[in-house]
Amino acid sequence: MPECTEAPYESEMIMPSPLNIRDIGQDRMAALELEAKATGRSIAEVVLDWIDTGIARSRAERDRAAWVASATGGIADECCHLEQNGPSLARFRQL
Predict the structure, then answer these.
(1) Which residues does 41 contact at the CB level (< 8 Å), separation at least 6?
(2) Are 80 and 86 in contact (CB under 8 A)?
(3) CA distances from 28 to 18, 19, 20, 23, 34 (A)
(4) Per-residue confidence band for 1, with pLDDT thresholds at 50, 70 and 90
(5) In sequence order, what E strands does 1-95 have?
(6) pTM of the predicted model, to two decimals?
C-alpha cells in the first residue's frame, strides 16, 4: 500500500501515483514532442514544468478563494457602516 505524504496544506493528503504518459493519446504525444523540440527540452521536462505551473495556479486560486471568503465579513461590516454613516475615508475612521 502506498504511503501518504503530507501536502503543503495540512488538510490535504497526497497519494503517490504513477503517471502513465502512454495513456494520453497520439495527438497529445505529438504535440508534446513538438513543444519539447521547440523549447529544446525533453518531454519529461515540459510535462513536469506544466504540472508544476498547474499546481501553483491551483494553489493560488485556492488561496485567493480563501482570502475572498475571509474578507466577506469585513465587506458586510463596511456596507453597514456606509449605510449608517455615508462614505468616508477609511484612514480617518477609528474602529
Answers:
(1) 49
(2) no
(3) 18, 15, 13, 10, 10
(4) very low
(5) 5-6, 13-14
(6) 0.55
